[in-house]
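Supplementary Note 2. Why include the ligand at all?

Several targets in our set were suspected to adopt different conformations when bound, so apo predictions alone were not considered sufficient. For every target with a known small-molecule partner we therefore ran a joint prediction. The input for phosphoenolpyruvate is given below.
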Amino acid sequence: MTRKPLIAGNWKMNGSLAESRQLVDALRAGITAGGAAAATMLLCPPFVYLPAVQGWLQGSPIALGAQDLADKPGSGAYTGEVSGQMLREVGCSHVIVGHSERRALYGETDAVVAAKFKAAQAAGLVPIVCVGETLEQREAGQTRSVISAQVAAVVDSAGVQAFSKAVIAYEPVWAIGTGRTATPDQAQEVHAFIRGMVAARDATIAAGLRVLYGGSVKGANARSLFAMADIDGGLVGGASLTAAEFLEIFRAAA
Ligand code: PEP
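The joint prediction is reproduced in token form.
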């Protein structure tokens, strides 16, 4: 089965409205019809910029996503939260859930990540669920057990069928924003492990599942990562803030 690569830009809490406009305009100008046919480009700006970015993307093949959403479906008294339905309304197709920064800095547990995953799907969004081990865990030989627990928490809660409309991002925590990238072989090993976990429950869903790599992806290393059999694109932080760099990464996948 061929899996169309996905290149997602996670802007995190960066940029002004004016800088965001410049970035979007440059990406629009740089993406070709052939590139868009071969791979999907997704931008995940901060919540408050979503409506503006949606407007600037009109008529372009670039998709819009959010960086997080509420773990509660529907609406209600949840001060400060943003629902999946609201994200759909402003044009999002995807949403990142369980990013390591959310897990480490905001205390998101596997249970919360699973609830967000289900809330996203209930709203018609494709969740991009992030998993990854810390350096200490890798050095202690715990990579597989950590990834296994993080993936199982979502699969057990949402069911394997839910992964026909979901994306997994393998993001080793030690590689995020550090300039240290997993080697293509290191990443491939974990990607194959993740696909194997899903395949043990449903081989067809596993074959169609996109597993992205994230962690200091740059134009210079993207091609060798995306050449691996089980790497279906990237979740890109820092390098997604520079149009030329992000376009180079995109071209490596397209
Ligand atoms: C990320 O934000 O998910 C990420 C992988 O960041 P960076 O590309 O900067 O390492």
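The pocket of phosphoenolpyruvate is lined by residues 10, 12, 99, 171, 176-177, 214-217, 235-239 (CB under 6 Å). The longest helix spans residues 143-158. Comparable summaries for the other entries are listed in the accompanying table.
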